[in-house]
Amino acid sequence: MHTPIEQLESRRLLAASVIQPAMVVSGEPVAGTPRQVENLGRGLVAVNKGSGQVFLSWRLLANDPANTTFNLYRSVNGGSPTLRANVASTTNYTDTGVDATRSVGYFVRPVINGVEQAASNTFTLAANSPTRQFQYVDLDRPASFVDAAGATVTYSPNDTSVGDVDGDGEYEYIVKWDPSNSKDNSQSGVTGNVYIDAYKANGTKLWRIDLGRNIRAGAHYTQFIVYDLDGDGKAEVAMKTAPGTVDGLGNNVLMGTDSASADYRNSGGYILTGPEYLTIFNGETGANMATTAYVPPRGTVSSWGDSYGNRVDRFLAGVAYVDGERPSLIMSRGYYTRAVVTAWDWRGGSLSRRWTFDSNSTGNSAYRGQGTHSLSVADVDADGKDEIIFGAATIDDDGRGLYSTGLGHGDALHVGDFSPTNPGLEVFQIHEDENAHKGQGGTFRDARTGAVLWSVPGTGDVGRGVSFDIDPRYAGNESWTSSNSNVYRADGTVIEGSTHGSFNFGIWWDGDLSRELITGTTLDKWDTNTNSAGRLFTVYRAAPVESINGSKATPMLSGDLFGDWREEFILRSADNEGMYIFTTNAQTSVKMPTLMHDTQYRTAIAWQNVAYNQPPHPSFALGMGQVPKQNVRYTADAAPLQNPSVVEAGTPQRSRVTKYTLNFNEAVTINLSGVSVTRRGSGAVPFTMTALDDKTYVLNFSGIGGSLGDGVYDVDLLANAVRDSAGNVLSGGNKKLTFHRLYGDSDGNRIVNNADYGVFKATFGASSSSSNYNRNLDYDNNGIVNNADYAQFKLRFGTSVSY
């Protein structure tokens, strides 16, 4: 039995936290082509808080209109659902009066422009569900074995990533299994095979990839990337492979005449000869879809800095939108000396190399030795395309060097909008080589230019450093390193009397906009009264869990995996048979889209598992209270919206016209500020707009005197004002739709003539109770078509409108 989860242990700390008002999604999306992001579901999660309370949270998506509300439904023991609440200002809710002895299911329906949309997946809490805020996922642990030296080798779940591999809008979990004899590159010894598994959230195993004997186990060898690289709505899995690798269908991964039985390990366990591959695996089945030679090849091992195989096998990986629209796979080799970075495209079932950057190439020598044990991806120059922040250097989106600081290698790297006074993004990095950093153990630099804004003094190898916005008293991030106990504000000044917390991961957890700290199997919060970190949640008392990666003590994964914008974290079970996914149960007044639709944050989740795991940072500063409107489109829907039509509402010519409809061929949302109506020669016409359904929007002109006057009308739609569910905008940009209104023009040919006179004669004498009554011809609106109306008709005879 697990002990009940501890609620926030320090009430003083909780009281000190600042709950911010609802976030403001600011402005229109940035200009340019929308970026491809996942077509996520609502990610609804329910947490039993006890005492008849259930906490619920769900996703707001990037392309949801700002005025989207949610109807929350509950069903008991599988019965008919009942509406519990319409939630407008947040995307979380605490349901009360819940009978925990009965099963209870929840789902939400978005309400957009007054129209209820499709229901989310249902999350069901079984009867007598325990009071806890984690989900346990049972894993299929690989069997132990006895190695050649007679030692028993066991497996533990290690680095983890997520992706929607089956296109259902929710994440699956991709788990790397680490053998107990895995090695750092600096250590000799034969290791066990590395396995990569895929699991549904309910523990169903989808596949297992065996990387084989020719891929060594350790933090620097296997960097696996999970991402929808081709935009088909299903994530792929990419990694370095070799002869001996077996895909998820049980097939050997081979090129040409290479042999699956070949063994390239030397006496020290290093693999310094033999073929090296890059493979794209199908995320749903684990099947090998494409395999090519790894770039760059080893070449001469000693040319990377040593002859025994340490520096040659230092690999990094990531995902970047180097074209500004679609993700490219980033793979690299080396960072202590030579560094080579390659961008690959997976498009239409074909793997192609976009560019390769090599520090050995002419003009690139300044980029040697600048890498860290991870990389980051961000649009540092605000041109809409991503750069690769490769430690102390940055590679531009076109594969050319952008800048090198020359400050050298380090173990940790953070990139985001950390300073309110410096425009754009910043980088906080620690450094290892004093000959290069010259006493600047940690540097806070401008991400666009590389200019150092301020630094933390340090001598020798500064091993750890982080940057998080933990203190609401000061705008921007706080940063600290292992070289001293100080905590530094975003302007480089020290918070007086401060003592820093952990060097691990940050997490948005308790409802405010400050980030909390994950420290192994505990969670801490910055206390503004003591200027130090205090315990918020002792995780290991809630469940039998362990962190991973030795002294780094990181979670298997941390990120916005489901629920609202706040983050989850995953720890392995102490018996290595499963994993625990922890989620918050605290209310928040902050409403904002899922962080996973910010592509800098989402790509950070993809590269989080790389080498020395680093926490994700979004492209914007949460603590400033505004979220930029993302310019994104969802996967599996790249088609722009087709031209809509505008037509008279109701039966033509049967009433005085006050309404017209905008008709679309698919579901859309409309920002009213981007819609206007003008009458040619007269100017703007006031109107209101409501949704008849998600494809039909009604323009109502009843507020201008009961009907529209004769004339030609233009309905102007800004392209970005109309978006489909994938975020696509109107084809060809802004649209001008035209209709005409002419009383007496019964046949709609834009002129009142003899044909209309025939209609008038047939209608003459009809009253409002008659089947042939035509109010369009009842000019005086007295309920009968008579001589008074005929007089008006004669006046209009021959009148026309044209355009």
Keywords for this structure?
mainly beta, single chain, five-stranded antiparallel sheet, 6 helices, 803 residues, disordered N terminus, 55 strands, elongated
Give a short overview.
The chain contains 6 helices and 55 strands.
Helical region count? 6
Q: Segments where pLDDT lies below 50 for 5+ residues?
A: 1-21, 651-655
Q: Name the structural class.
A: mainly beta
Strand content: 25-35%
**Average pLDDT rating:** 91
The overall strand count is: 55
How large is the radius of gyration?
31 Å
Major sheet size, sense and barrel closure: 5 strands, antiparallel
Q: Mind explaining what this structure looks like?
A:
By secondary structure, the chain is mainly beta. It is 5% helix and 33% strand. The chain contains six helices and 55 strands. The strands form 16 sheets. Strands 5, 6, 8, 9 and 10 form a five-stranded antiparallel sheet that branches. Strands 11, 40, 41, 42 and 43 form a five-stranded antiparallel sheet that branches. Strands 14-15-16-17 form a four-stranded antiparallel sheet, with no helix packed on it. A hairpin with a 2-residue loop joins strand 3 and strand 4 (53-57). The N and C termini lie far apart (78 Å). Residues 1-21 and 651-655 have low confidence and may be disordered.
Give the SSE layout.
Elements lengths: L10 H6 L7 E3 L8 E3 L7 E6 L2 E5 L11 E8 L5 E6 L4 E4 L8 E9 L2 E2 L6 E3 L8 E5 L6 E2 L5 E2 L1 E9 L8 E8 L15 E5 L5 E6 L14 E3 L8 E6 L35 E6 L5 E6 L21 E6 L7 E6 L6 E8 L2 E9 L17 E3 L8 E4 L2 E3 L5 E4 L8 E4 L9 E5 L3 H4 L2 E7 L5 E6 L7 E4 L9 E4 L23 E3 L8 E4 L2 E6 L4 E7 H4 L2 E2 L10 E3 L8 E6 L4 E5 L16 H9 L18 E3 L3 E3 L10 E4 L10 E5 L4 E3 L4 E5 L3 E2 L3 E6 L2 E5 L10 E7 L4 E3 L10 E7 L12 H10 L23 H10 L7
Parallel strand pairs: 1-44, 2-45
Antiparallel strand pairs: 3-4, 4-7, 5-6, 5-8, 8-9, 8-10, 11-43, 12-13, 14-15, 15-16, 16-17, 18-19, 19-20, 20-21, 22-23, 23-24, 24-25, 26-27, 27-28, 28-29, 30-31, 31-32, 32-33, 34-35, 36-37, 37-38, 38-39, 40-42, 41-42, 42-43, 46-47, 47-52, 48-54, 49-50, 49-53, 51-52, 53-55
